Amino acid sequence: MIYNEKNSLKIDNHFGGKGTIEIFKHVSKGDLDTIDMVANVVLPKGSSIGYHLHDKDAEIYNIVRGKGLFTDENKKEHIVGPNDCCVIKKGQSHGIENVGDEDLEFIAILF
């Protein structure tokens, strides 16, 4: 099966973050037994996803391009870029901000 989502979902101030992000969902809850979402996420320069808790699920970010500031469960900040993988376990919190000069793009897997 091939998923190629052409339409995007634009969200303003996601989880209290800055700016508008764009999500291209490829897999949604119900498509697979153990995966709730697979999506390409684009954060334009200066935008962010606010710090939030994953109390019911876990998430992985695989950074494709750009430069981000990832805040982990201990509120420690990490610079992330292409091929970095951010793992958020169930019960942990996190956030991410685009701190580069181009779009920050990553693949998000929610499970």
UniProtKB/TrEMBL annotation:
<dbReference type="InterPro" id="IPR014710">
    <property type="entry name" value="RmlC-like_jellyroll"/>
</dbReference>
<feature type="domain" description="Cupin type-2">
    <location>
        <begin position="41"/>
        <end position="109"/>
    </location>
</feature>
<dbReference type="InterPro" id="IPR051610">
    <property type="entry name" value="GPI/OXD"/>
</dbReference>
<dbReference type="InterPro" id="IPR011051">
    <property type="entry name" value="RmlC_Cupin_sf"/>
</dbReference>
<dbReference type="Pfam" id="PF07883">
    <property type="entry name" value="Cupin_2"/>
</dbReference>
<dbReference type="GO" id="GO:0046872">
    <property type="term" value="F:metal ion binding"/>
</dbReference>
<dbReference type="InterPro" id="IPR013096">
    <property type="entry name" value="Cupin_2"/>
</dbReference>
<keyword id="KW-0479">Metal-binding</keyword>
<protein>
    <submittedName>
        <fullName>Cupin domain-containing protein</fullName>
    </submittedName>
</protein>
